[in-house]
Specification:
By secondary structure, the protein is α/β, with parallel strands linked by helices. It contains 11 helices and 21 strands. It is globular and about 75 Å long. The chain starts with 6 loop residues before the first strand and ends with a helix. The structure holds thymidine-5'-diphosphate and magnesium ion. Thymidine-5'-diphosphate binds next to helix 2 and helix 3.
């Protein structure tokens, strides 16, 4: 059959296919995301056959052998933890992040940290010499790491099948291509084909594969969005490029919990694991400074504390500015409106700047309480004692709402030597505490009374 329709349109946000261009993707509703790509030729599915193709038969679930020992440690405790206790054989893990955030550095540090694993590192971006230079900077070149500079996925898979490594790393999906697709590397159809080929290889051979993918700040090159459906695990690398802290977050994990989080520090010799982020994200100053408040946050399964900073000043120009780093600015505006309407603070003529320590991006609702305390503290130039911390969501009528797992936040705050933690009156805390006092507040006026009067 001759194919008349030689091109196909893909949504670069969700991967939806369409035979014609559309302004708005009917599947995900995004505007201007449809991109043109050549249709796949007949060879596509024959491209990379799975080595186990004919061995597959339905099996009883109870007969399938698996033990947790099969997970392989990657030699870095924080990476293992975020994967749910090591990498699962045959899994495809996507490490996504903006260019320059440290994806190549992290993935090269893995073979350096576990010389026991035979690793095949496929680089489509850097020459073998450049990889060697980086490895030297990271402190070594292990005997057990093969560097392969290749971008044709069919060659990579046949080489990997011959080598049968313990781990394969592919840097990056945007540079790889399959000969069965006509479009350029990095296009939606190439990304899909490359990832599917790697998935078939991983599942068929049992070799875990780490795939690196770039995303831009505005998410415009949305390849990794499409990849999310294909891969087993998505780890997202985040961080302010100016700062040296990097956050690795698990946003999808078929073999573990999501929204786990690890913190790394970029140093002159690679990424250093920060095993106790609280100690890094809370301030060094003994005396409280005005405009700061500590939030007892929970990200995934791990509680940690960090500093919220705010600066409130009279607006220099007509309209007041509101700016937030690491926090949703609409949420900030809502909290300021609550303070204005429910507690009578006149902040509409004030500039309000908000910053989360360490370049952290925060979406735990428990941060609300620390945000309003930091804003009020700066507004009145009144320092909050450095051993107070906060965990509560603020509702539209000014009520302080309970947050999940309050007990665990209290335990972490106590462990770090805090003396008082402010939570919602409606949270049912069972925790017996020795060194920390749990102060329960029902609404914003009550909080203000407890703190400022
Ligand atoms: P890289 O891993 O190349 O980023 P990606 O692969 O995500 O594009 O990291 C590049 C940045 O990291 C670069 O700006 C330099 C910095 N860096 C260090 O600070 N120390 C190091 O030891 C290394 C290898 C990189
Ligand atoms: Mg790179």
């Amino acid at each position: 059959m001759s194919v008349k329709n030689k091109t196909i349109w893909y949504c670069s946000s969700c991967g939806n296919e369409s035979p014609k261009w559309m302004g708005r993707c009917p599947a995900c509703g995004e505007w201007n995301t449809m991109v043109e790509a050549p249709a796949q030729t007949g060879k596509a599915s024959a491209g990379v056959a799975s080595p186990l193709r004919n061995d597959r038969k339905p099996q009883q679930l109870k007969d399938i052998a698996f033990s947790d020992e099969e997970r392989k440690s990657l030699g870095m405790a924080e990476v293992d933890r975020i994967l749910g206790g090591g990498i699962v054989p045959g899994s495809l893990v996507l490490v996504a992040g903006e260019p320059g955030i440290g994806k190549s550095t992290l993935s090269l540090q893995i073979p350096l940290h576990c010389p026991d694993l035979k690793t095949l590192y496929v680089s489509g971006e850097e020459s073998a010499k450049q990889v060697k230079m980086r490895a030297r900077r990271l402190g070594g070149s292990p005997d057990n790491c093969l560097i392969y500079t290749e971008t044709l996925i069919e060659n990579i898979i046949s080489e990997a099948t011959a080598i049968n490594p313990d781990l394969m790393i592919v840097d990056s999906v945007q540079t790889m291509y399959s000969e069965s697709i006509e479009s350029a590397p990095g296009s939606v159809s190439q990304i899909k084909e490359v990832a599917s080929a790697l998935l078939r290889f991983a599942k068929g051979s049992g070799v875990p594969v780490i795939l690196i993918g770039h995303i831009t700040k505005d998410g415009f090159i949305a390849g990794p969005k499409i990849l999310e459906h294909i891969v087993d695990v998505v780890l997202q690398f985040e961080g302010e490029n100016r700062g040296s802290y990097r956050i690795l977050r698990s946003i999808k994990n078929r073999f573990g919990s999501t929204s786990e989080l690890s913190v790394f520090e970029m140093t002159g010799s690679g990424l250093r694991e920060v095993s106790n982020p609280s100690e890094l994200l809370i301030p060094m100053h003994e005396q409280g400074l005005s405009g700061t408040a500590i939030c007892a946050m929970l990200d995934g399964t791990r509680p940690f504390l960090f500093e919220v900073q705010s600066l409130v000043s009279s607006a220099v120009y007509g309209t007041a500015q509101r700016s937030a780093t690491g926090f949703d600015v609409r949420r900030l505006n809502m909290l300021l409106a609550v303070l204005e309407k429910r507690a009578g603070f006149h902040l509409s003529a004030k500039d309000v700047f908000l910053n989360m320590a360490g370049g952290l991006k925060v979406n735990d609702p428990a941060a609300d309480l620390a945000v309003i305390v930091a804003v009020l503290s700066s507004n009145f130039d009144f320092a909050i004692p450095a051993d107070f911390c906060f965990a509560g969501e603020v509702g539209l009528s000014g009520e302080i709402r309970p947050v999940s797992q309050t007990d665990r936040r209290i335990i972490e705050a106590e462990r770090l030597g805090f003396k008082k933690i402010f939570v919602s009156s409606f949270s049912d805390t069972q925790q017996k505490t020795k060194d920390i006092r749990v102060v329960k507040v029902a609404d914003v006026p009550e909080l203000v009374k407890a703190l400022f009067r």
